[in-house]
Amino acid sequence: MSGLVSLCLLAAAFAAQPMALEVDRGAEEITVRFELLQPLPEAVETALSSGAEVQVRYTIRVYARRRMWWDNRIWKGAAEAKIAFDAVTGRYFCQLTVDGETTVSRELESAEAARQWLVAPPAVHIPLPPARQKAHLRVEVRAVFGSGTTWLVFPSTDGTRWVAIRLEAPREEE
User: Fold this and answer.
1) I need a labelling partner for 144 at 20 to 30 A (CA). Which of 19, 21, 28, 33 fits?
2) For the ranges 10-14, 107-111, 153-157, which has the lowest average pLDDT?
């Protein structure tokens, strides 16, 4: 009996999503919001409490459905939520960069507010190519906490698994 309960708990753990993902479709762009539902890794928490610069990278991919071939990737990028503690002012400088360009920055007073910036950064606006503005879309996001190499050859990444959401094509108005 306990084996069955363990199996059910294991299945529930794998079914839990690591992130919440919400996508709003506009006429020429989509707005992607995400929030990390699992706790931050211990290394990130330790760095945050020590005052070191901390970064969580959210990799985003947008695909458009084709009729005969596999989906066509129309956008790929990364949103990086960064926090740096300023010991002189006692404030946290928070920054969101999308593909290297700063989109939002803010100064926060508490470590908890800074942690929330890492876990649920501001929305990311992604322009859609004119040919794909009325297509069926799939948006995928994952959080990456750190990456490195194993045995000097094989890349390794510490992060979540991919979370995806599908968007139907907008209906034609008559």
Assistant:
1) 28
2) 10-14
The domain limits of the chain are 18-167
Segments of 8-135 assigned E as strands: 19-25, 29-36, 54-64, 72-86, 91-98, 101-108, 124-127
What's the rounded Cα separation, in Å, for the pair 104 and 74?
Answer: 24
How far, in Å, CA of 31 to CA of 124, rounded? 6
114 vs 118: CA distance, rounded Å: 7
For every residue of 142-169, DSSP letters joined together read EEEEEEEEETTTEEEEEEPPPEEEEEPP
User: Rounded to an integer, what distance in angstroms lies between the CA atom of residue 39 and that of residue 116?
Assistant: 11
Rounded average pLDDT over 77-105: 91
Q: Is 161 left (phi over 0), alpha (psi -120 to 50) or beta?
A: beta
DSSP H helical ranges for the chain: 2-15, 42-50, 111-119
How much is the pTM?
Answer: 0.81
Answer whether 37's CB lies under 8 Å from 20's CB: yes
pLDDT of 156 above 80: no
How far is it, in rounded angstroms, from Cα 61 to Cα 147? 19
